[in-house]
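User: Here's a chain of 295 residues. Predict its fold as tokens.
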Amino acid sequence: MAEKHLNFKVDYKKLNIFDEFNTKDINSPLILSVPHAGTVIPEEFLANTVCTVDELRSNEDSFVQDLVKGAAESGNAMLVMNIARAFVDVNRDKIEIDPGMFYNHPQKDSPMGTRRCRVGLGAIHRITAQNKNIYDGLLDYNEVLLRLKNVYDPYHKRLQQLIDKALKKFGFAFVLDCHSMPSKICSIMNDGTAVEFCLGTLFEQSCPAECYEFFKESLSSKGYNVTYNCPYSGAYITFNYCQPRKKIYTLQLETNRGLYMEENVYKKSADFQKVSTDICSSIQALTKFLLDFKN
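Assistant: Prediction complete.
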């Protein structure tokens, strides 16, 4: 029996792809990127999945834009993806697409992508965070190309524009890519202490040591357990925009969801405001540090 073909088209004119804050006049070299907190699920896509909204939301970094909003309100530029990560993951390379997901991929039998792609979490997700298949058939590759054109490309184009503006004004740019991590993943340390924040530095390659050490100390001074590169060392945005020779630096910030939300019901916890205040205070301290930084 031939496998089911899923043919649908999304009306992108109805979608607000991203929001931005304090981007008209760049007030600091620090740019906040929030690529995985989007909750907008295109209705045409939802109708062609075998998942509930909550199952699709398991792939997102819930409420991260609200966690760091205070740092944007204090003057830093911020770019926030509104579209759900399960639809398009802008923190992956475009080549991280599994040809086996499509009935008409031009190179269906060729090995492509990376390990993330092979496990179902490439630029186009095949599974949810609970390892449930999102689709019960094969996709139209041309439809996915439209996803990349209308969602992926605009986010990266705007982020590059903001980096260029900061570079022109301050002589360097610093992208803080903001994410969250499941509390289950955070309980991996040998001493039994859960990781509360993880700073991804591409193993000390993404920015000067003074910068990530300052940020770590700021968070640690508030009583948090902060690690480097474990369990996450940095993904596509951290890697792609990191160009130290051009004085473009990146740092990935991962926050343990157990600190600020009830993970199973997608609700903010009673500690949300305290955690947000602590994060934004440290980001603002880093901003001041960067304004005085001689790189």
